[in-house]
Specification:
A mainly alpha; B mainly alpha; C alpha/beta; B: mainly alpha; two-stranded antiparallel ribbon; 18 helices; C: alpha/beta; 3 domains; 7-stranded mixed β-sheet; transmembrane (chain A); ABC_UrtB_bac (chain A)
Chain lengths: 294, 405, 463
């Protein structure tokens, strides 16, 4: 029973990491159809932001809290730069954006290697995040609770933005019918840029959060990118809800498989489940109904 | 090749025979044959020739990708899987025959339980091995393709799924060390169907086989593309729904191209193993799978010889450049991806075509598109014509023209 | 989740395996001595036809070219394999060429660059001191690009095109495995500087890193001495950890230690919640860690987060050296144990000289570690062998190798002529708050290498 709850928590925690990694993608891929392979590198940029800030701000707690917004801006600016220089010319060639952004990812990684050195760097966790919270006989690590909370906060913030703000309305309008939105006076170019900024910014935040769990190195992003895309594919495009459900389901499934078999086999099993799932629901869990031929 | 020389819509004038696509293609194949069978073996040292053989194996994968991606519009990010299946089948056969009848290969003694698993057993036979190499990758691709394409999973979804497949396959190979050799893969082959691999003459023979197979593949693709099926495939790429309304099932059309691409990748892998002397999970994962695409993109995805030339050129450059400038190579590779795909989507092959047309039409471009329509509009218009790669090519020409105008 | 796109950096730090115990050296020497063509394949003529057929099947449309290939082989079958053993090494001038083959790009570059640096240092020192047999060393440097296939390709280039007298390098087991057939068929020499999982002994390779009885077994000896009874095994999913754990299981059974869990994570795995959960509920009183690269970071952070401590459940790691400590974070790992044959803090005049020279050349912030020291030592051992043999020829060096010794930074090492490994001292180290590792236990003098664990009763049937 104890193990069951611990595993449930491990799954939720894994799900929250996946969610953070996939949330930005749910915007850029899900809403705009851009396959951004450099998304992982934006996460890496966020993680290095936390590292750099820590050299200026000695207090680990303060620097983490500062790193979250700064990471958002760094990731967002990188995304904006990418959108303006490359992606904006390629909206009609989604598959080609995949390759172009893969090239960008390679360059960013090598850049990180040359700037920060190939070895991993360490970001100290603040004292108030060390240790665990006892709960129903389990010890829940504070860092994982923090990430879970952060993921939920990001989802809530994003959905509020999408629902209540004018930017949100413009984004939704553009996603649902680009031409009509344009005709109605929405600047789809500006909307695209902002969406990309926000989506990439969330990647930066995810990167900052990941420093609490693992290593910070040039290949940080690549460890998550495939999984993050799978989350979006399973979740379905067009709504954040899908990504949230998919992230937590995949997290729990992975943790369960891993507990009952091995970590390697769990990955393979997960893939099988995803292919089978797409047989049943090729459009993912949640999809916006459109009248286009799919 | 046919794409590179396809007539630009609106400027169709009957070409003299030496300008006709068919003539060009066969001339290209003939030149390639002369280079591969005549010049290369005469000029290159054994070491360089073996290197070329390795590149030719990679080029086989590229030919398949050219078909599936360039002509069929399916971005196959998981060709490493089929490359790996072919490679491991061949490698396993070589390990089994090196061990001798009834004996157990060394890696199974070291990591495994010291017995040959039942499903490896049939690979003792050379005939079964070759059949398996030809059939298994294609079969798996066909099954997967049916599952995926029938449900109309396509575009980015298909690309991501095929990529995840490559990731899962590599993990599976590593995890099942007892029967696959784990990260070390399979290596230390001594003979290839009874031929001593340490013998330079036999290495040379492997090269000739690789060259012959590669040319055969190019010819097969050429024949396919000039058939009714080829027209359908391109039509599916450009207007899947229109094809469906005409009464064809696009899923079947795509599955065939995907299966052929997988088969070519499998054969490439099967020859790669003896040429290089090792096949390991590092050759089949996500990164090598994307790596296969670079050459195709650079050479020209929708052309016949572009993928081959691109793949060989990129591998050659990598070998040469990475020695002197290890970190420079990564930048260079990234930049190639970005520049070629973003600004020259039909690869360097389109440069030749552009140049020819421009010269033929006098200055500065075949037909100036209306100001403001831009490349994308041209592409959209053109793609409805669905005439081979010419559609995208025309858009490209228009793009360049627009930029110059 | 979190196994990624790329093979993680530091991929296979450890190594994998070779040939079966039966006839390892024998088979390679056979291969050298007699023409393989007649020896191995008596059915040559009929086989030839089969090949032509199969080639024809492969190249369905161009059977002509395929048969052409086969015929070429027919004609030349008689002269086969003679060129395999011929060496093009030129020792007539006042220089001699040697090859350095390390990954300078790709995931392994981070580790292998350090090995290259210490090889360069050793070559510089040797040249400054007059070279080898009066000849200056001329280095041909190559990049293995972290890919086994590239290692094989470059090894062949170094031997056949550059005609080097010996090659130094390789790191991952798969890189060594890929190079082994090249060195055997070309009859050249490879000096391999990284500790690995044993079960290999090629006449054409000298192994200057530890084999299992010089690293894994001392690690377990130490835990046994500390009275640990329940050991949990965690490792990355590849050859070295699996082989090491096979040995540990046998050791544990013979020594009354219980293995309470054995878990593998895919290379680059970054989420250890489940594995650490299993570790925690297993009641283990020690952990033997064969994880490598990035995974260590995630593992130790998780270990700390769930409240495990070094006092109750110490971790012995075999792939964390000085340069990895910083990336994991000293806070997360201070007090944990490692098993190696060298630390920067080893106290000896040779080591002081080595560390000083290294820092002088590469900067004060660069630590020295076990594989670097083994690489440095390997060049000096080769020099010792050449001088003893008074020849650069492979056969002479193999002949002279036995008993060649060198006062290395780690202590005196001696080459074992039978298995081409070297006798080394084992040190168990504790990670200090300054990020360096300090020895807390050492073996009684150098341990004789025993790659097939033939000297251990409990290891019967392992290989």
């Amino acid at each position: 029973m104890d193990a069951l709850f611990s595993q449930l928590f491990a799954g939720l925690s894994l799900g929250s990491v996946l969610l953070l990694a996939a949330l930005g993608l749910a915007l850029t891929f899900g809403q705009m159809g851009v396959i951004n392979m450099a998304h992982g590198e934006f996460m890496m940029a966020g993680a290095y932001t936390a590292f750099v800030l820590q050299t200026f701000i000695p207090d680990a707690g303060v620097s983490l809290l500062v790193a979250l917004p700064v990471g958002f801006v760094v990731g967002g600016l990188l995304g904006l730069l990418l959108e303006v220089t490359l992606i904006s010319r390629m909206y009609r060639r989604p598959l080609d954006t995949l390759l172009v952004t893969f090239g960008v990812a390679l360059v960013l990684q090598q850049l990180a290697r040359d700037v920060f050195g190939a070895p991993n760097v360490d970001v100290r966790a603040p004292a108030w995040l060390s240790g665990a919270v006892p709960f129903l006989g389990m010890n829940l690590p504070k860092t994982r609770l923090f990430i879970l909370g952060l993921a939920i906060a990001c989802v809530v913030a994003l959905s509020l933005v999408l629902k209540l703000t004018s930017l949100g309305r413009r984004i939704r309008a553009t996603v649902q019918n680009r031409d009509l939105a344009e005709t109605s006076g929405v600047s789809t170019r500006a909307t695209d840029r902002l969406t990309f900024f926000v989506g990439s910014g969330v990647a930066g935040v995810a990167g900052v959060a990941l420093t609490l769990l693992g290593s910070i190195g040039p290949t940080l992003g690549t460890n998550y990118i495939v999984d993050a895309f799978l989350v979006v594919v399973v979740g379905g495009i067009g709504q954040l809800k899908g990504a949230v459900i998919a992230a937590f389901s995949l997290g729990i499934l992975q943790a369960t498989f891993e507990y009952s078999t091995t970590a390697s086999l769990a990955k393979v099993l997960l893939f099988v489940v995803i292919v089978a799932f797409l047989q049943v629901r090729p459009q993912g869990l949640v999809s916006v109904r459109t009248r286009s031929l799919a | 090749m046919s794409a590179a020389t396809g007539p630009v819509p609106g400027t169709a004038t009957p070409a003299p025979w030496w300008r006709r696509p068919a003539t060009r293609v066969w001339a290209g194949v003939a030149i390639a044959a002369v280079v591969l069978f005549g010049l290369a073996p005469a000029l290159l040292s054994d070491f360089r020739l073996n290197l070329l053989a390795k590149f030719l194996c990679l080029a086989m994968v590229a030919v398949g990708i050219g078909l599936a991606w360039g002509r069929g519009g399916m971005l196959v990010l998981g060709q490493g899987v089929f490359f790996g299946i072919g490679g491991y089948l061949m490698a396993m056969h070589m390990k089994l025959s090196d061990a001798g009848p009834g004996a157990v290969p060394d890696f199974l003694l070291l990591y495994g339980d010291g017995v040959v698993p039942g499903w490896w057993e049939p690979l003792r036979s050379p005939v079964v091995t070759i059949l398996a190499i030809l059939v298994l990758p294609a079969g798996i691709a066909a099954l997967l393709g049916l599952a995926v394409f029938r449900r109309r999973v396509r575009g980015a979804y298909f690309a991501i799924l095929s990529q995840a497949l490559a990731a899962a396959f590599a993990i599976l190979l590593v995890g099942q060390q007892k029967v696959t050799g784990g990260t070390n893969g399979l290596n230390g082959f001594r003979s290839f169907f009874g031929y001593d691999l340490a013998d330079p003459v036999n290495k040379r023979m492997l090269y000739f086989i690789a060259a012959g197979v590669l040319i055969a593949m190019v010819v097969i693709v050429r024949l396919l593309m000039s058939s009714r099926y080829g027209e359908l495939l391109v039509a599916v790429r450009d207007q899947e729904n229109r094809v469906r309304f005409l009464g064809y099932d696009p899923a079947n059309v795509k599955v065939v191209a995907y299966a052929i691409a997988a088969c070519f990748a499998g054969i490439g892998g099967a020859l790669f193993a003896p040429v290089v002397g090792i096949i390991s999970p590092a050759d089949v994962g996500v990164i090598p799978s994307i790596g296969f695409l670079v050459g195709v993109a650079i050479g020209g995805r929708a052309t016949l010889l572009g993928p081959v030339l691109g793949a060989v050129a990129v591998s050659w450059a990598e070998t040469g450049l990475s020695e002197q400038f290890p970190s420079f190579w990564t930048y260079f590779q990234g930049a190639l991806f970005i520049l070629v795909v973003a600004f020259l989507p039909q690869g360097f092959a389109s440069l030749g075509g552009l140049w020819r047309r421009r010269r033929a039409a006098g200055a500065p471009a075949p037909d100036d598109p209306p100001v403001g329509s831009g490349p994308d509009a041209a592409r959209e218009l053109a793609s409805t014509d669905a005439a081979d790669g010419a559609a995208q090519e025309a858009a490209d020409a228009a793009r360049t023209a627009g930029r110059n105008a | 989740m979190g196994t990624g796109l790329y093979t993680p950096r530091d991929t296979a730090r450890w190594h994998a395996v070779g040939r079966a115990r039966t006839g390892t050296l024998a088979s390679s020497s056979e291969a050298k001595g007699t023409p393989l063509t007649t020896h191995t394949f008596p059915l040559r003529t009929t086989r030839k036809r089969a090949l032509a057929l199969s080639a024809a099947a492969l190249a369905a449309a161009l059977s002509l070219s395929a048969c052409g290939g086969a015929r070429t082989a027919d004609a030349a079958a008689g002269t086969a394999s003679a060129s395999g053993g011929a060496s093009c090494v030129d020792t007539s001038g006042d220089t001699v060429k040697i090859g350095f083959l390390n990954s300078l790009s790709g995931t392994m570059a981070i580790s292998e660059q350090t090995v290259r640096d210490s090889l360069d240092l050793a070559a510089e020192e040797i040249n400054a001191a007059g070279g080898v047999l009066g000849k200056q060393l001329e280095i041909v440097a190559e990049d293995g690009a972290s890919e086994p296939t590239v290692f094989a390709e470059k090894a062949e280039k170094l031997i056949s095109s550059d005609c080097v007298a010996a090659v130094f390098g390789g790191w991952t087991s798969s890189s060594r495995k890929a190079m082994l057939p090249v060195f055997e068929s070309k009859n050249s020499l490879l000096f391999y500087p990284v500790q690995y999982e044993g079960l290999e002994a090629s006449k054409n390779i000298f192994y200057t890193g530890a084999t299992t009885n010089q690293q894994i077994i001392p690690g377990m000896d130490y835990l046994k001495e500390q009275g640990k009874k329940k050991v949990f095994l965690v490792g990355s999913d590849y050859v070295f950890p699996r082989t090491a754990n096979k040995i540990i299981n046998a050791y544990a059974e013979a020594n009354g230690i219980e293995i309470v869990g054995e878990e593998y994570a895919p290379l680059g795995h970054t989420d250890f919640a489940t594995i650490v959960n299993k570790l925690k509920s297993s009641g283990a009183d020690a952990v033997f860690n064969t994880l490598n690269g990035d995974s260590n970071v995630a593992f130790f952070k998780e270990y700390k987060n769930v409240g495990l401590t070094v006092d109750a459940t110490p971790v012995v790691s075999v792939s964390i050296a000085e340069e990895e400590v910083g990336g994991i974070g000293v806070d997360n790992i201070v007090g944990q144990l490692t098993a190696w044959n060298y630390y920067q803090t080893v106290e000896s005049p040779e080591n002081s000289t080595f560390v000083a020279a290294f820092k002088e050349k590469y900067g004060d912030d660069r630590p020295t570690s076990d594989p670097m020291e083994a690489a440095y030592t390997s060049l000096y051992l080769w020099k010792g062998m050449v001088e003893k043999a008074e020849s650069f020829a492979v056969a002479d060096i193999q002949e002279a190798a036995d008993g060649v010794s060198f006062d290395a930074p780690e202590g005196t090492v001696t080459v074992n002529g039978d298995n081409h490994h070297i006798a080394k001292t084992a040190y168990i180290g504790e990670i200090g708050p300054d990020g360096l590792i300090y020895s807390v236990w050492e073996s009684d003098g150098p341990i004789e290498p025993d790659p097939f664990l033939e000297g251990y009763d409990w290891a019967e049937g392992l290989s």
